[in-house]
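To whoever is on call:

I kicked off a structure prediction for a single chain this morning and the downstream step that reads the tokens threw a length-mismatch warning. I double-checked the sequence; it's 380 residues and nothing unusual in it as far as I can see. Pasting both halves so you can look.
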Amino acid sequence: MRMNLGTVFQVRGIVAKLIKQYEFVLKILLKFAAFLLVFQLVSGYDGFTGKGIYNALPVHMLLAMAAVLLPHRCGVLLSFVLAIVNMTQVSLIGGIIGGVFLVILYITIARLFPDHVYMLLLVPLCINLKMYLLVPLFAGLFVGSIAIVPIIGGTLLWGFIQVLPKFLEMEQAALDALPKMISDVVVYSLEQIFRNETLIFLVFVFSGVVLLVNLLNKISMDYIQYISIAVGMVMGMVCLIVGKIALGLDCGYAAIIFLSLLSLLLIGLLEFMHMALNYQAAQKIAFEDDDYYYYVKVIPKINMGKMRREIKKITGADAAQETVRASEWERPARNPEKKPLPREARPAEERSRTAKQDKPSLISTIRKSFDTKKKDNEEE
């Protein structure tokens, strides 16, 4: 059976209604599952021993519950603390040096971009899954160009994970030889990170995709959200294929194409669930006040609820009663004290006409919102 576009929007409306109804519970469950997965991945790193009570599943569940109750940046901090504890279990000196790097990275991103600290964990995870373009497409569409710095931080964290075995190989040394060993490891690690051609290449690709999607998304054009992520995906996919040829990127050609298309599909579906617009009913409105001219393009949302088809059997007596009720409504009332019929009992045309009269005009609504924002700015 062929599914038309109206059915798709009806399904979207039903899903959106269910999500709004159980939004609080879904957020808690998803956040709990995400942080539990992160803690399990941190403890399951190949270079860690995996021993200790802090690597047990009940402890991870308690940490995930704490991350749910606290802001998400605190959950990222808990994952970093868990990684530092596991590093110090293998090598005390390596754990201290690696911990200093993680703390500096966290403080920098959390201080400048507290709402986007989660990208520090999301970027390395997507790189390991070979879904390179998922985070840049999401950031360019929903976050903006400010997401470039957290994405670069996440890419640096991925580079740190590549040299982490060198930290874990550090052994206890004599006190006089300790400074030289620390300096050698730090210099080696920095060289491996900042001379890593793949890391630098990914930083430029991610930044370019975010900027391209964000700039295209600002153009006033129908379906520009979907066009912007499609163009960004094509540019990113071509760059990744070039990186595979020139730098030997650890991903096959088929995987690059398939996972790039999958990333585009996921972000497109997320945008569709976030907002579907009826461009055919778009309006351009212009009005002015004492200080400004306002030019507004208004695009209504598509919101189709579940269709309800009801078949009502009307007998002869019911039909006569409906006819009398309609004629009484059309004819002016002889008794002035007689109350008007309720809105549900009025004819359909009269109900729609009354609803249009009661509903405020679009331009008055927009003007009111502008006046409110202007008043708030003056108060600030």
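Update from on-call: the warning came from a stale cache, not from the record. Cleared it. Sanity check on the structure: Residues 327-333 have pLDDT under 50 and may be disordered.
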